[in-house]
Amino acid sequence: MTLVCQEHPKTTVQTPLAADTTSTAGTAQAEQQQKEVCSCSSCSPFRLVLHPLLNAWGFTTGSMQFPCLLLLILPGMWADPEGSQKLHLFQTFIFYNSNLVELSVWATLEDIIFAALQNYTREIIYLQPWVFSALPADEWENLQNLFRIYVYDFILILQNKARLYQIPYPFVLQCKTGCELYPNGSYTKFYHLAYNAHNFLSFDVDSSHWKRWQESEVAVNVERELSSFIGFSASLQYLLNITCIDHMKRFIEYGRAALERQEPPVATVFAHMRDPAQLLLVCRVTGFYPRPISVAWLRDGQEVLPGPGLNTSTILPNADLTYQLRSTLVVAPGDGHTYACRVRHCSLGTRSLLIPWGSSKVALGIGVAVVVLLTVAAAFIGTVWYYRHRC
C-alpha cells in the first residue's frame, strides 16, 4: 500500500499537495520531519500535533467519484457522548497517477470547520475570526512551514511505495485523528486510516499498537512497517495524549461565542397524497443550531410511537452552519384525527414549536372566501354603477 517508507526517494513529483497517515510513510516521515524541522528548542508541541495528526484524517472531495468516501467509520467508534468536546483533523489524498495528487485537509472544533490547508500553496486558511488569535503567531508560522515540508516529502514517499507495491491508480487515502474531552475530565483519542474508502489501520494510543482492519497483503506490509517506527508511535502518543487536549482547550476558549450560539428552528408542515388511501404528512425543520433536536408527531395530542408509518431523516447540514431534517407520517385521509408536529430545541428554552396539520388549509379556505366575497361585492357595485349611469 502507500504506507510503507523508509528512505526519501529522489524523484520529483508534480502535485498540488498531500499528507496522509495511512502509511508507514507517515512513520518514517514523522521521524525525518522531527529531525529536519523539530530538532531545535523552538519546536512547538502544536506543530508536532498537526504534523502526523493533520495527516491523519480524511474526507475526500475531489473531482473523482469515489462513493461514500466522506466518512471513515470504524464500528462503535464515533459515538457523540453528550457534553463531550471534540477536536478532529481530516485529510484525504486522491492519487490520480504517479504525477498528480489532490489533497484536502481541514480541522474541526465540535462541528465548526475552523482551519484548512490550501491545496496548491499549502498555506493554512483560518476559517473563523477567532482562530488565529488562539495561538501565538510563531506557532502558526512553524505549523505552516512544517506542513509544506511534510506534505512534499510525504507524497514522494507514498508514491515511491505505490511503485514498490504496484498499487494501481487511482487510489484514495483518508485519515482522521483527534481527541475528545468529557465533562468529568477524562478524554479519548484516536488515529484511523482508510484506503479506497475501506477501514485500513488504526493506532491504539495507550498501548502504542497498530491494528489492521483488513487482511490484505498491503495492510499486512503497512502495519509491519508502521510498527517498526517506534519514534513515530511515540510522537503520536505525545500529540494525542497531551498537545491535542491542551490546544483544544485554547480553541474552545477563543471560539466560545461561536460554539455556544443558538439558532431557533423554523418548521413547516405540508402533505402529499400518495394514493387515495394514503396521505403523507411532512414536517420540515431547518435553520437550527446546535445539532441536538427532538421532532415528534402528535395524534390527538398524543405522541405517535415509532412504527412503519413514521420516518425521520438524519440531521443534515445547511450551508450556513445550521441543520435541517424531515419527519414524515403516513395517515389515512379523513381519518378524523388531528395531527401536529412538535419540535423541541435548546434555543426554544422550555417552549416547543407545535405546528398543527390543517391550519394552512383553514387559512387558505378563509383567504379564498374573502376573495370570493370581494369579487361578488365588486361585481354588485359595478352593476349598480352601470345602471345608474346608463342614461
UniProtKB/TrEMBL annotation:
GO molecular function, one term: lipopeptide binding
GO biological process: antigen processing and presentation, endogenous lipid antigen via MHC class Ib; antigen processing and presentation, exogenous lipid antigen via MHC class Ib; immune response; positive regulation of T cell mediated cytotoxicity
Protein name in the entry: Ig-like domain-containing protein
SMART domains registered for this protein in UniProt: IGc1
Pfam families: C1-set, MHC_I_3
Transmembrane segments: 362-387
Highest taxon of the lineage: Eukaryota
Record bears the keyword Membrane: yes
Residues of the Ig-like domain: 264-345
Annotated keywords: Glycoprotein, Membrane, Transmembrane, Transmembrane helix
Cellular-component GO terms for this entry: external side of plasma membrane; extracellular space
Source species: Cairina moschata (Muscovy duck)
